[in-house]
Write a structure and sequence with these properties.
Helix content: 25-40%
CATH topology: Rossmann fold
Number of helices: 16
Strand order of the largest sheet: 2-5-10-1-11
Number of domains: 1
Distance between the termini: 42 Å
Largest sheet: 5 strands, parallel
Low-confidence stretches: 344-351
CATH class: Alpha Beta
Number of strands: 11
CATH superfamily: P-loop containing nucleotide triphosphate hydrolases
Length: 361
């Protein structure tokens, strides 16, 4: 069933304005398409570019069940995030965490996918404490994810105010995991096996006309998410495009954008994630002339930016980035990112960004 996306961009713009947030239309369309087509989203970019604001806005726009978690250094295992069973007091009880308290609220049956937002997720290795999330949501579409809390057959009494803790936490349908990343000396880039399961959204500092626009309006709150029930299966937009016989042009556009990779292999999962994203992007920008005129090119080049460039090793990245810079549409997200990368001779230190992630630091 085609998503009611024709008016989605306008609704999201109104929602952002009501909450005192401003992003350019290209960034908004990109974020909406990423949310509709992917279950793991990584928000990266220089400090102060709005990673947390945009991730939080998406969760409030789409979801009526949300959990916001602050990561911290030292998280290793899933139990470090959610807690663990203990018998130190002489009886079996569960030692829970604030994160678990927030996650338990997400259980329930609604049409709206639950959202877990983890701030500064890479302060600890994501593949460790969030391994259950990234492994299960790494499929092209995961209707449900489960998180084992303890091995008792029945609910376990908790220490503190959590009440009874079930053996397993279940999140459905099609849960979303949103991660904000600050990549620097204290928080390294995420492991490739995690990045390969995600859509990486890069935020650049806004243009001056956005910075010096009229002051944001005072934030307001709404009880019901405006787009509750809109997001679901990550492949909905692609299935609609296939049904309408419109997927051929998407495939051709992606092949053209990915040609800069030369003989490097593009995995089937990466290709299909790119197709899902591109179909969602076209659905989101439909009816917006300024974005529609470049929609196919932007969808394909954005996919290169989200799914391919973050996984290239340093040697590959330098070669592909040079070719992609030549072909990138001026003003598009790919061009803005590549133009922001320092090159030898740009400064006295002669620093060169040798992969996708060092270009952020």
């Amino acid at each position: 069933m085609p998503l009611p996306s024709t008016d989605l961009l306008r609704q999201f713009s109104i929602f952002l304005e009501a909450h005192g947030l401003r992003f350019d239309d290209g960034t908004k369309a990109d974020a909406l398409a990423a949310y509709l087509s992917s279950q793991i989203l990584m928000f990266a970019g220089p400090s102060g570019t709005g990673k947390s604001s945009l991730a939080g806005a998406l969760s409030h726009f789409f979801a009526d069940r949300r959990a916001r978690i602050e990561a911290e250094p030292g998280l290793v295992r899933p139990a470090d995030l959610t807690g663990y069973p203990s018998v130190l007091t002489g009886r079996a009880e569960f030692v829970g965490t604030l994160a678990l308290e927030r996650l338990l609220v997400l259980e329930g049956a609604t049409e709206s996918p639950p959202v877990v937002l983890v701030e500064e997720a890479n302060l600890s290795p994501i593949e460790g404490y969030l391994g259950a999330f990234t492994h299960q949501l790494g499929a092209l579409a995961a209707r449900e994810m489960t998180f084992d809390l303890h091995r008792d057959a029945h609910d376990m009494v908790s220490r503190g105010n959590l009440g009874l803790v079930p053996p397993t936490l279940r999140l459905a349908p099609y849960p979303r995991l949103l991660l904000t990343l600050n990549v620097d000396a204290t928080a390294p880039s995420p492991a490739n096996k995690v990045v390969a399961r995600a859509c990486v959204l890069l935020l650049e500092p806004p243009d001056l006309d956005v910075v010096f626009a009229e002051p944001p309006v005072e934030a307001t709150t709404t009880e019901t998410p405006p787009a509750s029930g809109v997001a679901g299966h990550p492949g909905d937009c692609l299935l609609a495009a296939i049904d309408g016989g419109e997927d051929g042009e998407l495939r051709d556009a992606l092949k053209s954008a990915f040609a800069v990779c030369g003989e490097r292999r593009i995995s089937p999962r990466m290709a299909y994630r790119s197709l899902q994203y591109a179909a969602a992007y076209l659905a989101v920008v439909a009816g917006t002339p300024a974005l529609e005129q470049h929609a196919l090119v932007d969808a394909a080049q954005n996919a290169l930016l989200h799914f391919v460039l973050p996984l290239l090793d340093p040697r590959e990245f330098l070669e592909v980035a040079q070719l992609a810079r030549r072909d990138a549409r001026p003003g598009g997200a790919l061009a803005r990112r590549l133009d922001a990368l320092p090159e030898a001779g740009d400064d006295l230190l002669g620093f060169v960004a040798d992969d996708f992630w060092t270009g952020l630091t």
